[in-house]
Design goal:
Elements: H1 3-22, E1 36-40, E2 59-63, E3 69-72, H2 75-96, H3 115-118, H4 121-130, H5 155-165, H6 177-190
Antiparallel strand pairs: 1-2, 2-3
Length: 191
């Protein structure tokens, strides 16, 4: 890490500590109570990332020590996207009865459950190797074909699934793997 990178990291952690101290003044936090970091990304032909489905935005806003971000073509747009994401997370936390993380604290990554995927563990392993053509992959009940492709459609995967398992899953709009596995198992049982 460069000296500049170390300084930026130190400054972010100092900002996070300051927001943590201020957070004890109230209990219902808004985005403005959290330490927000802005960064600029390389876009266009110089970018190492190239996909027809995704647009790489120039600006990213994120909450320090928490894996919530917003992207946009301007700092303001990135902040607005971050604000929308924060509002959705706050609403979900209230609905589930979980507290919102205190500003400035480190928030670990929360992984989605794997109950439905684990119900088809043998199929899951086979699918990862034969359809996704990967040695291994961590998938959850929220994983979809879209997570493994930058193409505009999943037609390649749908064709491969049809060829390998003899099941058409192209009508599953979410492309969630747990729904695809349920369909494959259901068709196999009915045969």
């Amino acid at each position: 890490m460069t000296l500049k990178g170390k300084f930026v990291r130190y400054a972010n952690q100092l900002h996070a500590f300051w927001k943590l101290c201020l957070s004890y003044r109230k209990r219902d936090w808004e985005l403005s109570d959290y330490p927000v970091l802005f960064r600029t990304q390389i876009t266009g032909p110089a970018s190492a990332y190239d996909s027809p489905r995704f647009k790489l935005h120039r600006h990213v806003a994120s909450i320090v020590n928490w894996h919530i971000t917003g992207c946009g073509d301007s700092r303001m747009e990135a902040l607005q996207k971050l604000s929308s994401t924060f509002a959705a997370v706050k609403t979900k936390k209230k609905e589930t009865g979980k507290p919102l993380p205190r500003p400035g604290t480190h928030v670990p990554i929360e992984f989605a459950p794997q109950d439905r995927i684990n119900a088809h563990s043998v199929l899951s392993d086979d699918f990862i190797h034969r359809v996704l053509q990967l040695e291994s992959a961590w998938i959850s009940d929220e994983s979809s074909l879209w997570d493994f492709s930058g193409d505009k459609t999943n037609d390649t995967y749908y064709a491969r699934i049809k060829e390998i398992y003899g099941v058409d899953v192209s009508d599953i709009k979410s492309a969630r793997l747990c729904e695809i596995f349920d369909r494959i198992v259901a068709v196999r049982k009915s045969e």
